[in-house]
Amino acid sequence: MNPRLRAAVALVAAIATGAFVTTCGFAATRVATNDIHSNWYLLTWSNHWALRAVTSLLAFAAAGFIAGIVGRQHGALLALAATSPAALVWAAYLWNPTGAYISIGYRFVAILVLATGPYVAIKTAGAGETTAGDLRSHFDSRPSVSVLGVRWFHFLWIPIYIYGLSALLAPVLFVFLMSIRTAFRSEMSFLIVIIPVLVALALGFSLQVTASGVEKAYARLAGFSTEGRSVPLNLIAGPAVVLAADVILFWLRTLGHKG
């Protein structure tokens, strides 16, 4: 592929990845917190500023990595170009020309993103370039219309899968965090103490099964492997375990509140 065309593709892919991660974080936060307040916007997610900060940095990291691995060279410049729209939006928000009220939490998020986001993107872009260098011969041997070794038409369903997976994983993580908070704030009864432990085990197992399934599915789609279970079976295993964990953990959390 022509280097200029590759750079253009990398830039578009990085911008789309950053926006997609933010969208997944938005949906996951609303599902996990079950927050029905109306003040949900592009930058401010009700009063969940800490989750917004984490999502922003993840978006910068993901955009940087994609810029590096797809572009293969000048990853830092591509990462900065891809993440500059988000940085400019946060800068405008912090500047606040309208004089609207901005909570201390979201002021912190804006400063954190502006101070560390570009650095995170540059570092992950370097990791992406290194990975691309290691796998370059394999990627180049794949069909011409492919990204990271995966044929283009698979990207019609991959974002839908990731979006749904993030909505399933979020409640497990949220219950884990809330269980720890409850354990510290409540009387240390056996049930209150054991719930965070059970949640941690369920969360770890869910993440392990999901990560393993996604890794094996990618290996099949990108041509690294032709052995093992089919792609659908690998991709279904993780969400099935996560869904079961969601049901069990929310039931345990309900028992904890009753206790």
Describe the structure.
The chain is an all-alpha fold. 78% of the residues lie in helices and 2% in strands. Strands 1-2 form a two-stranded antiparallel ribbon. α1 packs antiparallel against α2 and α6 packs antiparallel against α7. The protein is flat and about 55 Å long.
Number of domains: 2
Strand order of the largest sheet: 1-2
Specify the biggest β-sheet: 2 strands, antiparallel
Structural class estimated from helices and strands: mainly alpha
Mean pLDDT: 80
Uncertain spans = none
Contiguous helical run count: 7
In percent, how helical is the residue content?
A: over 70%
Order of helices and strands: HHHHEEHHH
Descriptive key words:
mainly alpha
How is the topology of this model organized?
Blueprint: H1 3-33, H2 49-71, H3 75-95, H4 104-141, E1 146-147, E2 150-151, H5 158-185, H6 190-221, H7 231-258
Antiparallel strand pairs: 1-2
Helix pairs in contact: 1-2, 1-3, 1-5, 2-3, 2-4, 3-4, 5-6, 5-7, 6-7
Please sum up the structure shown.
This protein is an all-alpha fold and 259 residues long. Helix content is 78%, strand content 2%.
